[in-house]
Amino acid sequence: MRFNILVILLVLSPAIFNCGYAQELEPRALTNLPKEFNFVGLAYAYASGNTLLDPSLPLEDFNGRINTIILAYVRSVNFFGKSGKVDVLLPFAGGDFTGIFANTSFEDSYTGFGDLRIRASVNLTGAPSLSAKDFSEYKQKTITGLTLQLIIPTGNYKKEQLPNLGSNRWSLKALYGLSHNTDNWVLEAYVGAWLFSDNKQFLGDNTLSQSALWVAKGNIIRSFKKKGMWLAFSMGYGYGADTYINDIKRDATISQLRLGLTYALPINPSHALKFTVASGIRFKQGGDFDAFSVSYVYAWLDKSSNKKKDK
């Protein structure tokens, strides 16, 4: 693997700041990859503050400290001649929580799995599906792409418990993005929406419904002389997700800004580290917290692709 593997090694961007829904900051999500390329990643994240991203929960003065371990796998695919990726992400979290429920203070802690996430993405223009040999000559200009992510309700959930690590409902995110490379800079912009199914076991046997959550985000990325080393500033905004409990609307509309800074550090052609700090700022409802994470990534090319390249 002697092509510019370090340039593409750090595209693995798991959603490390929450196990719910929000505008996740993912710089370089549209980076092109050669066919039959694989990643495994392990991330640790710590978040503190109002980590309660679901405004439908009737909690006041909420404060949480959450430790999360995330295991992720990514594989590049050929989608009718266009490059794409399929990834799977599973979080395991533990946290301490305090707040007020029904005018009574509470303090609790939970540990368990969050919801499983599966995502498929395809680069529509500017990033054809290439073999490892051809990819060594590829230079990014402008890429557009589409991403669909499905959150499956596999996480720990108890209907009498507040809060929960799982959501007990299906969620789907659709995202359209554009990435433009110029010299040592990459500029990215994304727009999309989250859609939610109903949770019919909310605080007992109540039904929780939410409208779409609309999101927009952007990244400014600076590459350095050492291949694979880069720094990204990210900003995302989410609005919507009007909340209904048993068809009665609550005053719980999300309006949240998120800021992030990511530094990618290659170790060698197959191993890399990524460091991220982020902060959530809410205007109406949503998370209001600070977070830090460190991620380790290992990448490899299928043996069949290596044999083809050596011929």
Describe the structure.
Helix content is 5%, strand content 60%. The chain has 3 helices and 17 strands. It has helices at residues 5-8, 132-135, 303-310; strands at 37-50, 59-79, 82-101, 104-113, 116-125, 142-152, 171-182, 185-196, 199-202, 206-210, 213-223, 230-240, 243-245, 248-249, 254-268, 271-282, 288-301. 42% of the residues are buried. Mean pLDDT is 86; it is low at 13-22.
Strand order of the largest sheet: 1-2-3-5-6-7-8-11-12-15-16-17
Separation, N- and C-terminal Cα atoms: 14 Å
**How many helix segments?**
3
Low-confidence stretches: 13-22
- Tally of DSSP β-strands: 17
Order of helices and strands: HEEEEEHEEEEEEEEEEEEH
Give the overall shape, derived from the CA principal axes. elongated
Question: What is the helix content?
Answer: under 10%
What is the SS-derived class?
mainly beta
Give the C-alpha Rg. Answer: 20 Å
Portion in strands: over 45%
Task: Sketch the major β-sheet.
Answer: 12 strands, antiparallel, barrel
Q: Whole-number average pLDDT?
A: 86
Short description:
5% of the residues lie in helices and 60% in strands.
Q: How would the blueprint of this fold be written?
A:
Layout: H1 5-8, E1 37-50, E2 59-79, E3 82-101, E4 104-113, E5 116-125, H2 132-135, E6 142-152, E7 171-182, E8 185-196, E9 199-202, E10 206-210, E11 213-223, E12 230-240, E13 243-245, E14 248-249, E15 254-268, E16 271-282, E17 288-301, H3 303-310
